[in-house]
Amino acid sequence: MIKNLFIIPLFLLVSSPLKATVHEILVWDGYMQFLPSNLTSVQLGDTIEWHPLDIPTMVHTITSTNIPLGATPFDQIWQAPLDTFFRYIPTKIGTHEYVCTPHIANGMIGNFTVEDINLSITNNPFSFKPAVFPNPSNDYIQFSSEFNNLEFFIYELSGKLVISGISSFNFDISKLNSGIYYLVIAATEPEKIKLIIK
Fold first, then answer.
1. Do residues 38 and 107 both lie within one domain?
2. Would residue 196 count as lying in a domain?
3. How many domains does the chain contain in total?
4. What pTM does this model have?
5. 20 to 30 Å CA-CA from 57: which of 38, 134, 137, 163?
6. DSSP string of 126-189?
7. For the segment 127-145, what is each residue's pLDDT rounded down to a tens digit?
């Protein structure tokens, strides 16, 4: 029997992939450039990290200039040798433009484009539509479907597995800390994604 994963982020409506990607942008001190200067295919929940390509000899900034409405602005002053990286996790789709303020005239500019993950599922020959309840919950999560003895996994957003088991109708979450988790249910195809809130 082919198994696919039914991913259900627990406890909060979010749009983060289970396996987020870290995208690296290099700060090239010698030629005053960001490499790559144009980064595409960034998904919501991914992380952008700027790292030095060479040993910094001058002060740079990583300063947002034109970002999507509602996105968090950033203005990192990069000072050697203390600063070794800068991290930003985008929360809005669209193009984020940034510059090194003291070196704009030298062309030290960059951008990255954030896309949303398409969660729509097509060509569903099965009717697996797990009802997950109560929503919210502090101790037990229940689900109902036409399948019995479903294998389930609960992950932290970092990807760390915290609970796994087999159940036909419920599982205990009382020992989990408050926060955001993913519930992954293994069942016959196709893949389906649902959201619930704690």
1. yes
2. no
3. 2
4. 0.51
5. 38
6. S----EEESSS-SSEEEEE-S-SSEEEEEEETTS-EEEEEEESSEEE-TTSPSS-EEEEEEESS
7. 455 566 665 667 877 776 6
